[in-house]
Amino acid sequence: MATNGDGAEKSVMVLSVKPQLVFAASTASDAINFYKAAFGAEELKRDMHPKRKADQEFPVILSAHLKLGSTVFLVSDHSDDDSIVAPPVKGVVSGCVFCLETDDVDGLVAKAVKAGGVVVDDGGEVTKEGMADCCGGKVGKITDPYGYVWVICSVGATGDVEVKKVEGGDVEA
């Protein structure tokens, strides 16, 4: 908790989380096109690096805001002056998995594959029932052309887990 000037504690809340996907320089535009084609993402805004534009170097996307359902995420090119983050190494798991809920798992998996995604083969099935990782219903997994993993699951399946607050602020299922 933060404190007010009078020493009283005030509540501080996170209002939203916007994941930022970082790509090797000049590939963010291709990634944006993939997310539009594969998942129906809507591009809300795009900010370009002004220095790169002026120097006639390859264009660098500082951030593009994409909307999937009610969630907004950012897509950016990695640039030499960006010391905080680096793009994932192709062929290596990024350490980040995105779960998408849909009422047509097979249809969205097929759309993602058509756009260039690759099905993560879990025993030869494109989609499975009752997987325990994040969903309780039908699930399909794809890896996008940039190394990010997308778990596509039935609507409402992720909300079936009962969560309760335990001592110390930790959450227990």
Automatic annotation (TrEMBL):
SUPFAM superfamilies recorded: Glyoxalase/Bleomycin resistance protein/Dihydroxybiphenyl dioxygenase
Domain VOC: 17-155
Membrane-spanning intervals of the chain: none
Superkingdom of source: Eukaryota
InterPro entries: At5g48480-like_C, At5g48480-like_N, Glyas_Bleomycin-R_OHBP_Dase, VOC_core
Gene3D superfamilies, sorted: 2,3-Dihydroxybiphenyl 1,2-Dioxygenase, domain 1
Protein name listed in UniProt: VOC domain-containing protein
Higher taxonomy: Eukaryota, Viridiplantae, Streptophyta, Embryophyta, Tracheophyta
